[in-house]
Amino acid sequence: MTEPTIFELSVKGRKNNYIKPEDGIGGDIEKMLGKENLREKPAGLPEMTENEVIRHFTRLSSKNHHIDKGFYPLGSCTMKYNPKVNEQVARFSGFSEIHPFQMTGTVQGALHLMYDLAEMLKEIAGMHAVSLQPAAGAQGEFCGLLMTRKYHIKKGNDKETVIIPDSAHGTNPASVTFAGYRPVQINSSADGIVSADELERVIDDKTAAIMLTNPNTLGLFESDIEKIYKICRKHDTLMYMDGANLNALLGIARPGDMGFDCVHFNLHKTFSTPHGGGGPGAGAVGVSERLEPFLPKPIIAKNEDEEYYLSYNRPDSIGQIHSFYGNFAVMVRAYAYILSNGSDGLREVAEAAIINANYLKEKLKDTYHLPFDRHCMHEFVLAGTNQKKKGVKTLEIAKRILDFGIHAPTIYFPLIVSEALMIEPTETENVQALDNFADILIQIDKEIDEKPEFVKESPHNTPVGRLDEVLAAKRGDVAYIE
Ligand SMILES: *Cc1c(COP(=O)(O)O)cnc(C)c1O
Fold this sequence. Notes:
Layout: H1 6-9, H2 29-33, H3 50-63, H4 84-90, H5 93-96, H6 108-125, E1 129-131, H7 137-155, E2 161-165, H8 171-178, E3 182-186, H9 196-202, E4 207-213, H10 225-234, E5 238-243, E6 262-265, E7 285-287, E8 299-302, E9 308-311, H11 328-364, E10 380-383, H12 385-389, H13 394-402, E11 410-411, E12 420-423, H14 431-450, H15 452-456, H16 469-474
Parallel strand pairs: 2-3, 2-4, 4-5, 5-6
Antiparallel strand pairs: 1-7, 6-7, 8-9, 10-12, 11-12
Helix pairs in contact: 4-11, 6-11, 7-8, 11-14
């Protein structure tokens, strides 16, 4: 069932006349803009009435799954509810109608907000300085690795590699490669974490950095972190923390105190700015004192008169990595989120995220295999191996979940767990939502015993059925061409 596009719904000459020229709106466009600035041909916009447009987009929005519609336990993505007050604040005209070319004297409020947000992130993560420029987690990683590179070059260190655990997010090795280093894998121990002993075996004087995710993608806290720090110091190896999901640490533990030199934050995960659908996001980076000179420029600074300005006088900076200062409207939302929670509230976020994940894990571990049966942080990883033995793959379980109006967990990741189901409920779900999800997963397991074909043919009641994912990736058709 394909929906017509807005262009196909267009009928020549169809429009509303809610506002007429005689209402005093409009005027002589040619006179206002100058003839040379007018288009030669009309823009080819669809011609529709307002109610057709509203119905079209409302219908489409309800076909997709989104956080305002239902539970979204997509592991490693922190699909928490996005408070609407953040949206209201981001629309204040003082934020939404300013221009990046304005003189800094006229946008002091915006600069103040960015300055404060960086200060808050510094405090939350225990870092020495923060840049808000990167547009995504992956770009934050890249930025951190460029700084790492400059640090070593400046010191005359001869470095070639970056150590990454086998449980890492795929962006980590990609960022390492782009920054001109070679990724070296370190295997997780039987406990699912990086052990100091294994690190001793892998590290050498060519190791520029180790990139850890803490809690790691299995949802486990890297408890050898102090020993790891000592080993890294011996080799002048920097410690990079992938802090995309900081939900379990807020107000409890700080990457800076663990010895990390660089951490990126996904404002679009931990700090509740909307994501999914491709952005915009923000992947702010925090650094230790020794990496501070290399931060992207400009940085937002304050002079003796308490005036904010953009400091470009940064001779060792890696340069600018985003146009202007980053995705400002995302920063406004994250700032509103942090302020409205306050420091006690942020700690409660972390505690509730951890409790929710452990609650679900305990409810499900008798039905689905739990490969690392330990206390988890904000998420946990199950394996659909029992179900696979009965002939139903994890992919099919994920498709069946969609029939219940719930987004599937992340599947087949991390790569070290076969048939992985990575579940992150987040703190914004209540106990009824968690119970409901557990009941559904247990019901699906029963269905696998009773009517496996039915599960394998799912989803049954989503707007579209099973899609050909290979064809969609290879022959993406995302533009309307007349
Ligand atoms: C989401 C995520 C990233 C990448 O963040 P993007 O904003 O999607 O680039 C990196 N690492 C981890 C652990 C993540 O969960």
